[in-house]
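ingest -> validate -> predict -> emit
validate: passed (alphabet ok, no gaps, 260 aa)
predict: started
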Amino acid sequence: MSGAVERSLKVLEYLAEHPEGSAVSALAGRLELPLSAAHRLLADLIRYGYVAQDPHDGHYRLTTKMVSIGLAYLSRTGVVDLAQPLLDQLASVSGELVRLAVVDGEELIFVAKAQGARRGLRYDPDMGLSVTLACSAAGHAWLSTLPKDDALSLVARKGLWDPRAFGPNAPTSIAAVMDYVNAARDKGYSTIVEVFSPGMTAMAAPVFGADGVAVGVVTIAGPMVRLTEQRMAKLGPDILSTAAEVSRASSASALFRKRH
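emit:
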């Protein structure tokens, strides 16, 4: 990858983490770029429509062009059209947030969701973000489908992040992560309680392609006052059934087929 392209991508990733915008000096400092180089990169990104400069404070922000490209891509793969009715059904049964994430290299990316909570607290984090493998039900479910050595290596490469940014039960060692992964392997689905976020629980089941390799995961997440451990146990057959149905439908989606 050329240096200019790599730097431009880093600028886009940085701005994606700062929706309120960023001064060029802060961006340049964080990315360790000369101020002049940061200005040139931002000017190019503005010219192509990916970045805009606020006329009031001078901060740089992403436009919605990247979002529109991503949504257009997902629409053309058919994955959302295929999965949405299944996610809607599981959301109705569970009364909680249901999401689908797809495997993209060594990442899991949420691409579709259905909200089952009709009143009270709704858990609905950002879509389109990469899943934190060590501290998420989705990550544990996917890792449980890999050979143990491969799962261990992937966790080691991705790291644990700072447990203070997650829930009180976030794993603080690779061995602790693998305990969650092994439990998911035994049950066929993962469960977490106050791991990703305080007061929140989640569960996830893998989606398999025609060759038996995991191509995604289906998750249910909600507040622990509703989505208790007992409730998750009762929903186990439902999430496994939905994941199996998405697996059967996956061959009709170009997004899943290319991962087979």
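The chain has two domains: 3-63, 73-257.
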